[in-house]
Amino acid sequence: MRAFSAMLIPLLLTVSAAAQDADFEDESVAATQGEADIETEIAGGMASYYGRELAGNRTASGERFDPEEMTAAHRTLPFGTRVRVTDPTSGRSVIVRINDRGPFHKSRLIDLSQAAARELGMIRRGSAMVQITVLTDGDTAPAAVQIADNGR
Asked: By CB count within 10 A, which of 10, 17, 24, 105 is most buried?
């Protein structure tokens, strides 16, 4: 029985890894190789921003919030993750670093700092439909992005 278990466990792990790869492809995640970065498109949805009223408060990562830094809040992406946020209607995009948790409004996907929202041209509107792309260096496996994004 032990010999059978010793053969079965590696087989199950291989099948499990293959199933995860298939799930990753089924979610229509697009990955493209850049010069030094791999871009993995993970989601589209509504973005909002938070500004000066929270300046100086601690973020979930422990750093102080500065509305003039290019930062954002996301529910599940790891702190420090660099994300390209693109407004498909204007074509504008900005790269932000995840340093906080949120948004806590169900219909929102990401909360941007005021500086990032200004770059996207969404200050007057207050929110905008965006596309989110995770940037990872070529050494980091895109599978790490999949694990972080499973909580959607």
From this structure: 24
19-25, long-range: CB < 8 A, 24+ apart: 20/143, 20/146, 24/143, 24/146
Residue 1, class by beta-carbon neighbours within 10 Å (0-12 exposed, 13-18 middle, 19+ buried)?
Answer: exposed
The tokens for 103 are 């948004």
Euclidean distance between CA atoms 135 and 133, whole angstroms: 6
Task: With beta carbons less than 8 A apart as the criterion, state whether 58 and 64 touch.
Answer: yes
Listed residue (124, 16, 117, 138) closest to 67, CA to CA: 117
Q: Is the pTM of this model over 0.90?
A: no
Judge whether 54 and 61 are in contact, CB under 8 Å. no
